Amino acid sequence: MTDTAAADLQSQGLAARSPMRAFLKLASGFWRGDRSRRAFVLTAVVAAFAAAVVGAQYGMNRWQKIFFDALEKKDLDAVWSAVMLLPLLVVALSVAMSGHTVSRMWFQMRWREWLTQRLAGWWIADQRYYRMSIVAREHAAPEYRIAEDVRLSIDPLTDFVIGIAMAVGTGLTFVTVLWTQGGSYTLTVLGTTVTIPAYMAIAAVLYGATTATAAYLTGRPLVDHVSHKNQKEAEFRAEMTRLRENGESIALIRGDEGELRSTLENYSRIVGAWMKVIRQQGVIASVYNLNVAFYPVAPLLLAAPKYLAGEMTLGSVMQTAAAFSAVLSALNWFADNFVRLAEWFASVKRVDELVDTLEAVDAGVVTGPAERIELGVSKDEAIHIRDLQVAHRDGRVVVDSASTVIMPGDKVLIAGESGTGKSTLIRALAGLWPWGAGAIDMPATAEVTFVPQKPYIPRGNLRAVTSFPQEEGAYSDEAITAALKRCGIGYLAKHLTADEPWSDTLSGGERQAVAFARLLLQRPDVVIMDEATSALDEDRQTLLMGLFREELAGATIISVGHRPGLEEYHDRKITLHREETGARITSRRLLRRGTVADSLMRRMKRFLVGDANSPRR
Fold first, then answer.
1. What is the three-class DSSP state of 383?
2. Class of domain 374-457+506-609
3. Domain 13-363 of CATH type 2.60.40.10
4. pLDDT for 193-223, tens place per residue?
5. What is the domain partition of the chain in residue ranges?
6. Please, which pLDDT band fits residue 190 given cuts at 50, 70 and 90?
């Protein structure tokens, strides 16, 4: 994508796209691809049961005419015939409605499953969940949008589509009944005789159109109110999650009062948003309740003159009254569901915002400097950093004009004052930080592992924790036990099958030791570490860093660290020096004890490949 095209896409933003159209385009993918057959089969099943429901309702409507005509004529045989027919119609309607309910829920579940897999896979793959936390920090709770808003956008949409289809089918079916049974109505107005053909059908359509229009006008503001309310609810949940995740730090500094004040302030915003929703729903409820109170009586009032004139039988009156109610229910579907429509559209907007942000992340259209760090593939097995400039989102340069070559097997320590951009540089090397300029070329076949200061501990037993990110069972229990023992935490090996909250059970030092045990199991080619030994005591640090002299001697190590004694385990040190235009780097060789031959060999390799920052230049 060119810079101009990216800028155009960014300037258009959400305002240039229709959330509903974008969501429907995304969700319609259910009928495309490898699962399209299932989607079409489920759609056909739902449609068949919906048609069966309408057919059964029409049968019940016809039964009413037969039964009440028999009552009016006092025809006992006809009454008993109608009574004998009733159980069959009831069973047919019950089966049709039950099948419709089950098939609809089944369809909703499968559609939601497809969309959840699509969005969750998109969000989690290629570290988008991390990149979004950097480039779109204002994008609140993407996990909630996937877990909850997908449901709130799929389930009502299914109900709406089926409801509209059934409303149309019901309306057309029973308008025909009104047309044929109601007949025309003749009245005299100011001496002029006027005949209204199919007056019951016309009256039903006009009445339904009037109530639907009133519902639309009174309910339209509810969409924005519901969207605003849902946003405030999401922000409140995110605040509660932040409080839980940082509970220990807050408790240690006794920040209870401040957090309570912040929590109550956030909830007050929810209350304000809810009050707008409540007021608007009160207006809608007034219109809706007037309609509910009047429309059952309306068909009886319309049919009464013709019945009294002997132009309609009692059965015809009851049939047309039921048909009139069915037509109004169909036409009032929009009015009856406007609140749910507002809730649905609010969820659609939130899902579309997530999709829009994911598209922006993929396209590189993010806030911050226009230039991006170029990630490439090196032509040899070395890591090449070429004219690298690392910047913050606001464009402030933190590392400027860095160039160096890191040979296979090099052990590089990155040091410098706090705030000079060491961790940011590490993230750029790991491909997680996009802002800046220049290029980073990594070996094409190298397996790169990143070890953060606080290693991630997933849920599950200790076998799964140690094997992560590989699946449980990727390594034998013997290999895992040996790795734990080598890292000084062999006492944990007896708990390999224990499914405990290990993220809360393990200490900071144990978590870091587990991360080193993973390295022994994975045997990566390149290890990038950010303060990976900060929670270890001196003896444990010596034990674990010794891995890079022995078991992992061939791995390339790039690490940030301040702990004393770390230089001993590296053969090169890159130091970031703070300057007004951004930190600049210098590089010097370190001579590790007992590794003279190795050092000479790497110097020879470096001479052949070249190092832009070496003293010989």
1. strand
2. alpha beta
3. no
4. 666 666 677 777 777 777 777 777 777 777 7
5. 13-363, 374-457+506-609
6. low
